Amino acid sequence: MAQLDVREKLEILADAAKYDASCASSGTAKRDSAGASAGIGSTEGMGICHAYAPDGRCISLLKILLTNSCIFDCHYCINRKSSNVRRARFTAREVVDLTLAFYRRNYIEGLFLSSGIIRSSDYTMEQIVEVARSLREDHQFRGYIHLKTIPDADPALIAAAGRHADRISINIELPTAAGLRRLAPEKSDETIRDAMAGMRDAIEEGADARRRYRSAPRFAPAGQSTQMIVGADAANDRAIMATASGLYDRFGLRRVYYSAFSPIPDASAILPLRRPPLLREHRLYQSDWMMRFYGYRPAEVAEATDEQGMLPLDIDPKLAWALKAREHFPVDVNRAPRELLLRVPGLGVKAVDAILASRRWRRLSLADVGRLSRSIAKLRPFIVTSDWRPTALVDRIDLKARVAGQLELFG
Amino acid sequence: MTHRVILSRPDDVDGWRDAARAAALADVAPDALLWAVEGEGDDLFGGTSDPLPAVARPPFVVPKRFLDLAGHVALHRDPERFALLYAMLCRLRDDPAVIDDQADPLRRRLESLAGEVRRDIHKMRAFVRFRELDGAYVAWFEPDHHVVRANAGFFQRRFATMRWSILTPGLSIHWDGETLREGPGAVRADAPAGDPVEALWKGYYASIFNPARLKVGTMLKEMPRKYWANMPETALIPRLVAGAQARETRMVERIVPGGNAIKAWEALRDEAAHCTRCGLYRCATQTVFGEGPVDADIMIVGEQPGDQEDLAGKPFVGPAGRMLDRAFEEAGLDRSRAYVTNAVKHFKFEPRGKRRIHSKPNAGEIKACRWWIDQERAIIAPKRIVMLGTTAIHSLMGKALTLSSQRGQALTLPDGTAALATVHPSFLLRMPDRDRAEEEYALFVKDLKAAVV
Predict the structure, then answer these.
(1) What SMART domains does UniProt report for this protein, alphabetically (chain B) (predicted)?
(2) Which of A237-251, B88-102, B224-238 has the lowest mean pLDDT?
């Protein structure tokens, strides 16, 4: 291979990393460099998106692979062994220098490092850990670090990764074990889940130790996350939601990312030629929010799907659920408990909290609710206020058509 | 009588709080107080505040939440901000519980001003771009509101060991590693280009973008054009957007069936064995996947497996299959060179005593199963597809069409593949009239002849 300069490598290795959806930099321990004699960086709880790409995605971290060479041959992956993309490899030092140069110019919150597997899982993991170690120990870097770990690497290496990183991720890759067998024949569903369970234990132990001794080292304070590819295997939305809720429950994940399969150059014939609509990914995120922030049980969210187990694309899943569960409506905004208010299509968590605070003070009218929410038109059929009661509107067959123009609640 | 309060700076939160507390204690009505900032607006009478009347009330407390709100609202560029805050303060003085009434119009107005300021603070933290200049770092930024001082601490905590300056039109702040200094406003040219790292950053920005998922609206919502002038990477956006379509097309064009078609097909068949995309898997014995050479020129698509196919796990092995074999031979086709499959891959039936009576798949089941037939087509890439009956037509044409409207013509599927439609052989088996059946069979063979490539 001809010698590549840093810019060429950066372009190849960023291009190879762009199929990972996560770029979050939030939810970690607070720290900063005030009063420090060396080093740089801070994390203050809220993540920061330093730029947005024309694909609408946030750029918060320097998201790159250490190398895009790989001994595995996963069909959905642009870096698989049989693909003939250009290969490049960074040294640990180069990644450290790039991270610091970008951070000093306020381009990024930190680093998201992943890698193709070269030589062996352990060798690759060692290289990844070395980058994080050098940033933290040699350069006193206090920004955000997200490391993607390799499921079957030595647990000692994974533990080292957790000591340096804010977040650890292990990708589940595909929502079904059958899909994984077909598209990533060298990976094992069982190994991935074992690694997630090991990570959950280590994170819990770390948090427990911190509770007892303030000086105990932190272990991945921003928790673990995972990503699954949507639309490359036969799983429908219902199956995907079931997998996701199982992952949240069993492994205490902070986030499950859904990545609509998108065409990759030099793809394997085994992949679908048609990509799923991007909206499908959006609907899955909304169903994920319903489970995590709106108190829906997984079985309830599944009620929003159609006969084929798919969420509707034309309306959001919360509205779809409400249209199917009309016996719960209308909800009286002046009396209903928080859980029921959260189920009204068009009321978000913020609006519900504002309603709860305000109604101790006054009987809420339609105009009051209008000031507290985004769109009263969408809400009207589902609520009762001091001056409004939908007359049999909830029973109308054409209700969907009447509210469908005023959609999008999660923002 | 009205009283004037002159604040020393546009972001003088402390000055506002002192004056507002004194005025509220003196019972000055909100409309009797005029707020101005030194050197701004109609400050024609010089920079002194009018003396306020004497204290007329006992001390009072306000909720901490209001002070947080005021701290943000006071940084807004809206000239009414101080007066609005004072009006709210007077109401809280009389009843602190008003803070909970979020539906109140004045409260909403203040919340929305505070929200705009918080966003401006956040965007400044996000979009400031430092350039290295002789070992120090300099940025030029144009905030919408008076947020520079309020944001200094953030940059100080983060870049404590660097020497840096943030220049804005109204105010500059400088950190030398130990103390923060303020200076007058500056111009863009004071933070000149020439930092070589910018080229690397632009290279990163262009590469991390996925052209297969263009969402310009989302980008603009979070990164409005007003910020672009001070962010080097945004110069690339027009080119990236224009090139996205071409890049995606190239990606798709480069998808070529590899040498692993057999492996791909086997893996697909194995995955299909576990399919639960519709409810039919519950009663059927097994998935009946397609069969035939993966490089076949002709693909035959039937409706769904029948009773015998369901038990055997192979398509077209029952009476209809035998009729298909015979017709193939007469039409001059080699059945062993064709790929044979069904639009729906599980047997749908109604139990009648010991028998299982075939039942037509519905639109939902056809749609759920289309995923598999699309995958089969992608791997086999047949030159011609023969659709047997209306279920196959529905699946491949994407909508319910009658056989009579499609039969006997050279059809083109939505993706451009050549196709033709004819009856399903089971239709011939069910005809009671022997003569009519013979006639129909002849027509069936004639249709199949058109499929010879």
Answers:
(1) UDG (SM00986), UreE_C (SM00987)
(2) B88-102
Domain ranges for chain B: 3-120, 128-190, 197-253, 261-449
Regarding whether A220 and A152 lie in a shared domain, the answer is yes
> Over 60: is that where the pLDDT of B83 sits?
yes
- A154/chain B closest Cα distance in angstroms: 30
State the alpha helices, DSSP H only, in B95-179. 105-127, 148-158
Indicate whether A292 belongs to any domain: no
How many domains are there within chain A?
2
In-domain check, residue A219: yes
Chain B residues whose CB is inside 8 A of the A34 CB are 156-157, 160
Under 8 Å between Cβ of B126 and A108: no
Q: By CA distance, what is A58's nearest residue in B? A: B219
Top-level CATH class of B261-449?
Answer: alpha beta
Smallest CA-to-CA distance from B426 within B333, B350, B359, B352 is with B359
Among the three residues A266, A293, A309, which one is the final residue of a domain in this structure?
A266
Asked which of A226, A241, A266 is the last residue of a domain, the reply is A266
Q: Which of A107, A238, A266, A359 to mutate to test the interface with B (most CBs of B within 10 A)?
A: A107
The confidence band for A364, taking pLDDT boundaries of 50, 70 and 90, is: very high
Residue A117: pLDDT band (50, 70, 90) is very high
Q: Closest CB to A269: pick one of B122, B240, B264.
A: B264
Q: How far is A69 from chain B (nearest CA, A)?
A: 18
| Interchain CB contact of B204 with A (< 8 Å) | yes
In angstroms, what is the C-alpha Rg of chain A? Answer: 24
SS3 label, residue B422: strand
Which residues of chain B from 7 to 36 reach within 8 Å of chain A, CB to CB? none
ipTM computed for the complex: 0.89
Q: Which two tokens stand for residue B414?
A: 């939505």
Cα angle: A190, vertex A194, A199; to 5 degrees: 150
Domain shared by A185 and A250, yes or no = yes
Each residue's pLDDT tens digit, A284-329:
999 999 999 999 999 999 999 988 889 999 999 999 999 988 888 9
Domain residues for the domain of A367 are 317-403
For residue B201, what are the contacts with CB-CB under 8 A and spacing of at least 6? A102, A105, A107, B232, B233
Contact B216 A181 (CB under 8 A): no
> Chains A, B: CB contacts under 8 A, how many?
257
- Quote the Cα angle for A114-A118-A121, to 5°: 75
Q: Are both A227 and A168 inside the same structural domain?
A: yes
Q: Between the CA atoms of B213, B219, B225 and B227, what dihedral angle is there, to the nearest 10 degrees?
A: -130
Q: Is residue A94 part of a domain?
A: yes
Residue percentage of chain B with pLDDT more than 70: 95
Task: Using a CB–CB cutoff of 8 Å, tell me whether B132 touches chain A.
Answer: yes
B259: nearest CA in chain A? A269
Q: Provide the token pair at B438.
A: 């013979």
The DSSP secondary structure of A318-370, one letter per residue, reads HHHHHHH-GGG-SEETTT--HHHHTTSTT--HHHHHHHHHHTTTS---HHHHH
pLDDT tens for A155-182 read 899 989 999 999 999 999 899 888 888 8
The residue among A37, A182, A266, A350 with the most chain B CBs within 10 A of its CB, best to mutate, is A182
* pTM, 2 dp: 0.82
- CATH number of the domain residue A260 falls in: 3.20.20.70
Closest CA to A166 of A118, A216, A214, A223: A223
| Same-domain pairing of A72 and A220 | yes
**Residues 329 through 388 of chain B touching chain A, CB cutoff 8 Å:** 364, 367-368, 371-372, 374-375, 378-379
Contact B392, B299 (CB under 8 A): no
* Separation CA A168–CA A225 (nearest Å): 7
A293 lies in some domain: no
